[in-house]
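Notebook entry, structure prediction.
Reason for the run: the old model in the group folder had no record of what sequence produced it. Starting over properly, with the input documented here first.
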Amino acid sequence: MTDSAKSLDHSHSPPSALGWFPLSVSIEVNRALPAQGVKWLFTRMRTRELIDGRLEVSGEVWDEEGELVALSQQQVWIIVEAPKGAQVCHETRRGEGE
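New structure, fully documented this time:
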């Protein structure tokens, strides 16, 4: 371990994710796979937005021939754990919890 690695200050570490909670999931199947299956499928998942723990993800599934098999859209809420020793403020936004 280098001296610079030993001297890193971890007191300001970002929170770690504990899990996620799905808010909405949409899946559109464009074509069925053959009964005997396929050797491989290519998937691409993209995050378009991550704001205040709310994550929007879109996905595509492609077959061996480059044909689109399915599309998906998901919105999830990321549940995080505050860093050790951090003070956590639980504010209620106006209109929430009333």
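Summary: The mean pLDDT is 77.
The old model has been moved to the deprecated folder.
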